[in-house]
Specification:
This protein has 260 residues and is an alpha/beta fold. Helices cover 45% and strands 14% of the residues.
């Protein structure tokens, strides 16, 4: 008898650590994984109020959530974060590396600080958390799953995003390298590469870009945080039990044709 899809997408008994959980994509990933039964560790950096509000909302719906704040660009911060989660009974066996920044800076104007800050926030945090979570899983002999939030800009760069696109491209290769090395421990590592995801105010902040995207995207719309969260849930779940080292592109078909 085949297992039902509802069972395969069930995360009961799992604890998921989501970095950058206070952002609009991170919040939806958290709600989706909580809805699938996972306990949550919600990481935030500066916006504790948003992270705490998210945790309260999840608890009111019957879920369990722990908020931990950390600057993941700092040495040992990821290890301290994971140890703090373990101490509270929230040892993660699922990790979603969502923390990132997306500054727009022309390459000719970019400073070394701009470049390093982008890589510290986006790439270093993913490495450090993956290392900390996977070390704990291996020590205890437990399986696990990691999903790295990359971007289609890791495959097709956009102007003003040289540092962002480079960091996301590195995330994609890190995903494959980590899948290769952690696979023997039954730890799966995958990535999700979103296209342009809608957020409040995007139409007014970048009207030309939104119009061009909608005109070029085969599915004719922007993505939603839910589109990304659903892809993350699939890759975290038993439904993807033989999927590792892959990059799931969630862009409405944009990369199937000429760049926008």
């Amino acid at each position: 008898m085949s297992t039902s899809s509802t069972t395969l997408l069930n995360l009961n008994g799992q604890t998921a650590l989501i970095s950058g959980a206070s952002g609009h994509i991170g919040q939806q990933i958290a709600r989706t994984l909580a809805g699938a039964g996972a306990k949550l560790v919600l990481h935030g950096h500066k916006n504790r109020d948003a992270a705490e509000a998210l945790a309260r909302d999840i608890r009111q719906k019957g879920g369990e959530a722990l908020v931990l704040m950390a600057d993941l660009a700092q040495p040992e911060a990821a290890k301290t974060l994971v140890k703090g989660a373990q101490k509270e009974g929230f040892a993660p066996d699922v990790l979603v590396n969502n923390a990132a920044r997306q500054d727009v800076v022309a390459l000719s104007d970019m400073t070394e600080t701009d470049w390093r800050t982008m890589f510290d926030t986006t790439l270093h945090s993913a490495f450090a958390l993956t290392s900390a979570v996977c070390s704990a899983l291996i020590k205890n002999g437990n399986p696990g799953a990691v999903v790295n939030i990359a971007s289609i800009e890791g495959l097709a760069a956009a102007a003003g995003h040289a540092h962002y696109a480079s960091a996301k491209a590195a995330i994609l290769h890190f995903t494959r390298a980590a899948a290769l090395e952690y696979g023997s421990h039954n730890i799966r590592i995958n990535a999700v590469s979103p296209g342009l995801i809608d957020r409040p105010g995007l139409d007014s902040d970048w009207p030309d870009g939104v119009t061009r995207w909608k005109a070029k995207a085969p599915l004719g719309r922007l993505g939603t945080p839910g589109d990304v969260a659903n892809a993350v849930l699939y890759l975290c779940s038993p439904m993807a039990s033989w999927v590792s080292g892959e990059n799931l592109i969630v862009d409405g078909g944009m990369l199937s044709g000429p760049n926008w």
